[in-house]
Amino acid sequence: MNRLQTNLTPLLPAFIHTKEGKRWGYINNQGQFVLPPQFEEADDFQENGMAIARLNGKVGLINDTGQFVIEPQYNSMLPFTENRAIVTDDEGFSVINEQGQVLTKKTYGLINPYQEGRAIFAETRDDQFLYGYLDEDGNEHIPLQFELAYDFSDGKALVKIKENEFALINRDGHIVQSYPYASMMSYSEGLIAFAKTYQDNWGYVDEQGTVMIEPQFTYALPFQNERAIVNAAEGIDNQYGLINRDASYILPPTYQDMTQLGNGRVAVGRAFDPERPFTGSRYGIATTDGSVLTDFLYDQVAEYKNGLSSTTAGQFTFFINESGQREPSLPVIPGIGTITIIDDVIQANVDHSLSYYDRAGNIVYQPNTVFPLDDQYRIHIRKYSPNKDYLVYYPQIEGMTNGEAEKNVNAILRQKSLVLPVPSTQLDYGYYGDFSVAFFQNHLLILKLEGYRYPFGAAHGMPYQVHVSIDLGTGQIYQLKDLFKQDSDYVKELSDIVGQQIKDQMEQGHTYFFPDQYRGITPDQAFYVTDDALVLYFEPYEIAAYVAGFPSFTIPFKEIEGILDFTSSFWRSLHE
């Protein structure tokens, strides 16, 4: 019998920090590893007694002994729904069953999880992205033909046939009813939100197309348990309210944000700063009958499960009960994220980490904060979180024989990790930073410091990346010039090599480079080294589009050996 099905003890994913990165295994509810840390990623065990795990860069499915029942061969895998999982490889999306058999006859540009025996799939045909539906056996039961497609609900699904024409179809793809509208929003509880044109307000029609709620909202969400969230704002500010099927307001349209939480509860939000509503909201709890239970106390509120909602306020996470108050029988967890009760253990996904607590708030398991590089050197993981929207994990080195050099190196690592003065008041952006060991050999350590700054309300944020090359023996921070002979024109030679690589990539169809933007490298160009190569890279937007990330160029040492200084301390630290 599967050990998970005996209900003796759950297996819980947990990780340790190593110089190779996080290594995942599974612990019991006492915090002891049952399956040792060995995977690069590991998910919760699913109801089928198996869990998704990553090894050597690929994901597969393991059983409760840690053995792969589906070998790690995919780039990604979604949890099983209706005994089917969606997987991806370099070719695209496919469907597998629990035995690992690939059910689809080909790969697709997109496949969504199954719902009611159908899975939305999509790919490009004649320069148009079209949608259809797969059946349980992975066959194209409803062929590609729709411009949009929604999941099935009660045996029907909403699709967009063409401009200004939506339709409700059955499980075989037959049209039940068509609608002459520009926009529609999912079929739910017998009603569909619609807007006649892109400029018009939203209302609701029934399955037959009869207008049941006249267009009057600037936005309208699907009904859920006889209630729907709508926006009545005419300007840029939101005015969310909750209506019933008669279009009567249960909660007035006065809120900046609103989310249905289940269990007859709604989170209602008020902007932190009315002058800057994009910075976010504070939430209170109300009922779907219109009673407001709390003031605006919370920063994040999750859906209710078993009468409890995972909630954050400030820099703490805790459960609230159906009254909207913190549940006093359960602990307050330091950090921001979500918490889940698994048997008698609280799984805490907070501050981009994973720990476990008992119901009294005692730590059952948390990952290590120190890991060795070798017998002499160690890295301490420090946490800097002066604000609920600013979090950095940064490295501090221990074991250098020169204490003053170690102190100076650690100060530089703090500064380059962006451990900077940050106000405790509400920010208009969020920032998360972390680090990894990019290279370690002898006494040369290269740390990759990275982060992501996201201005609230922006389409996307800006990534941050820098490599710091440290001689642990002397404390010297190496620069690019330290690799080369003093009389060499390394800037010109490297610039020419990178320029040729850009030209070659453009000829191969890589169109993300900005024409004529590249004018060579700088003397202090961003870089790192591997065993046998130099890697130069540029900032986003510097020479290429944002989608290119940090454009990087690998130059084998053998290609530039004429200008390398083989007597330099940098080179010796790399090869001694």
Q: Number of DSSP helices?
A: 3
Low-confidence stretches: 1-7
Shape: globular
Total strand segments = 47
According to CATH, what is the topology of the domain at 369-478? Answer: Heat Shock Protein 90
- Supply Rg: 28 Å
Into which percentage range does the β-strand content fall?
over 45%
Strand arrangement across the biggest beta sheet: 38-39-40-41-42-43-44
Gap between N and C termini: 54 Å
Summing up helix and strand content along with how strands pair, one would put the structural category as: mainly beta
Q: What is the CATH architecture annotation of the domain at 369-478?
A: 2-Layer Sandwich
In CATH, the homologous superfamily of the domain at 369-478 goes by the name: Fervidobacterium nodosum Rt17-B1 like
Give a structural overview.
7% of the residues lie in helices and 46% in strands. With 576 residues, it is mainly beta. A hairpin with a 2-residue loop joins strand 5 and strand 6. Among the domains are: 110 residues, Heat Shock Protein 90, CATH 3.30.565.40; 93 residues, Actin, Chain A, domain 4, CATH 3.90.640.20. It is built from three helices and 47 strands. The N terminus is likely disordered. The strands form twelve sheets. Strands 38-39-40-41-42-43-44 form a seven-stranded mixed sheet. The chain has a four-stranded antiparallel sheet with strand order 4-5-6-7, with no helix packed on it. InterPro entries: DUF3298, PdaC/RsiV-like_sf, WG_beta_rep. This is Anti-sigma-V factor RsiV. Pfam families: DUF3298 (PF11738), WG_beta_rep (PF14903).
